[in-house]
Amino acid sequence: MKFLLVFDFDHTIVDENSDTWIVKCAPEKKLPNGLRNSYQRGHWTEYMGKVFVYLGDNGVEEEEMKRTMTTIPFTVGMVDLLGFIGKNKELFDCIIVSDSNTVFINWILKAADLHKVFDEVFTNPAAFSSTGYLTVQNFHAHHCAKCPKNLCKRKVLKEFLDKQLERGVSYTQIVYIGDGGNDLCPVMFLKKDDIAMARQGYTLEKKISQLAQDHSPVECSVLVWSSAVDIMTYLKLLIKE
């Protein structure tokens, strides 16, 4: 009996968007209009690449970025929740699937000593170049029309489950915890015994209720959460059963 917990990162584990939080490092803590307006829908990673070039051009170095990123607040109750999962690792496998990047997520989790809770992190690969600029790449290529160009979370989840099956690992239930529009695609992949935990008032919850109104509800059960306390309450019930 093992459960798979799948976490989004921005507005789920942390209570902000890590990609917009880094703007605190920019001169006057904001980006020039030309750069801000250059974002094209579905091409967020390319946009962030330009943001990192701008920061590098303005002399923002790795140490300052790291200092800024590790001040990002965790969602209420999240540190306790991850501590609880860490103490019950024999029952839970735990992964992150996020449109952030490896550098930000590693910094934030390691600073809070929470990185060991997660078995794998699937996110856009990032690294500092020899000139000290942060660079980011698309996570993968895919053919899903619903998802941004760089990441289809359904594809990540499906490939992870296939790989686990090859290792002889299958799950009693998948619990998917997220907030955003790009979490809908993997949620629609979940089966009836699985649970989607959608953050209250955010895009994922709205999209799921829209589907229900259109008489094409998702197959899995849906629970709405407003703090990680709600998630912990559910997980405690789950392991009592």
TrEMBL record:
Belongs to the HAD-like hydrolase superfamily. PHOSPHO family. Keywords: Hydrolase, Magnesium, Metal-binding. Substrate binds at residues 19, 99. The active site is at residues 8, 10. Pfam families: Put_Phosphatase. NCBIfam families: DKMTPPase-SF (TIGR01489), HAD-SF-IB (TIGR01488). SUPFAM superfamilies: HAD-like. This is PHOP2 phosphatase. Its cofactor is Mg(2+). The keyword Metal-binding applies. The gene is Phospho2. It comes from Bucorvus abyssinicus. Mg(2+) binds at residues 8, 10, 179. One of its GO terms (molecular function) is phosphatase activity. InterPro entries: HAD-like_sf (IPR036412), HAD_hydro_PyrdxlP_Pase-like (IPR006384), HAD_sf (IPR023214), Pase_PHOSPHO-typ (IPR016965).
